[in-house]
Write a structure and sequence with these properties.
Blueprint: E1 20-25, E2 28-33, E3 36-40, H1 50-55, E4 63-67, H2 73-81, E5 86-91, H3 94-103, E6 111-115, H4 118-124, E7 131-134, E8 137-138, E9 141-142, H5 149-159, E10 164-170, H6 175-183, E11 187-193, E12 197-203
Parallel strand pairs: 4-5, 4-7, 5-6, 7-10
Antiparallel strand pairs: 1-2, 2-3, 8-9, 10-12, 11-12
């Protein structure tokens, strides 16, 4: 799949005006936005790391939908592990996408970038994906729309009966409540609690 130009799906532009910069994080280049790490550069020989490693699929997907692309850390790790995987990455902030292109080499031949709202994209999506990653934050704030029933039902349709849905949450006093809300619609078959994150692995059906 050849790289496609980013596809706008919504007229909504970023209103955050985030202060983006590149900093060193444990020896790696990191994209920082108002003091929050959004993505980390992936070297050719770097082992998977951080919560991104915990989000990698358990199987061997041929297609992936990344909701909350950032600077493409997960896209890079997926491509390195599965060179033929087809990826669609959705991010609402064109500022972040452009910054990632310039500073994080986010130009992958198998990656289609969609600049737009993840909730609008999933509501209108008619494609199936073997793997769906949900990493929807605005700074420190988790986008609670990611726990809404219409969104989760859309993910069930997109992933189909055999697809995997992986959701990244902050680890705090609300994380167990959030996992329980996921479980109302999805089958949560594993929860991994990291130092700062909780990764919920889900499927549409048991």
């Amino acid at each position: 799949m050849t790289e496609q130009a980013e596809t706008p799906i919504s007229p909504q532009e970023s209103e955050t005006h985030l202060r983006l910069r590149v900093e060193d994080y444990e020896g790696r280049r990191a994209l920082m936005a108002d003091g929050v790490i959004l993505s980390v550069a992936v070297g050719e020989k770097d082992p998977p790391f951080g919560y991104w490693a915990a989000m990698l699929p358990e199987g061997s997907p041929q297609s992936a939908l990344l909701l909350g692309l950032g600077a493409g850390t997960l896209a890079q790790l997926l491509t390195r592990r599965f060179p033929d995987i087809r990826i669609v990455g959705v991010d609402i902030d064109p500022q972040i996408v452009e910054f990632a292109r310039r500073h994080f080499d986010m130009v992958l031949p198998n990656l289609q970038i969609v600049v737009g709202d993840a909730f609008a994209y999933t509501a209108d999506c008619r494609q199936r994906f073997d793997y769906v990653a949900v990493d929807l934050f605005c700074g420190h704030a988790f986008q609670r729309g990611a726990l809404a029933r219409p969104f989760l039902r859309a993910l069930k349709t997109i992933a189909g009966p055999t697809g995997e849905i992986v959701v990244n949450l902050f680890r705090d006093r609300r994380s167990d409540v959030y996992v329980n809300r996921l479980a109302r619609i999805l089958h949560v078959h594993r929860v991994e609690r990291l130092s700062r994150n909780v990764i919920a692995r889900c499927r549409a059906e048991r």
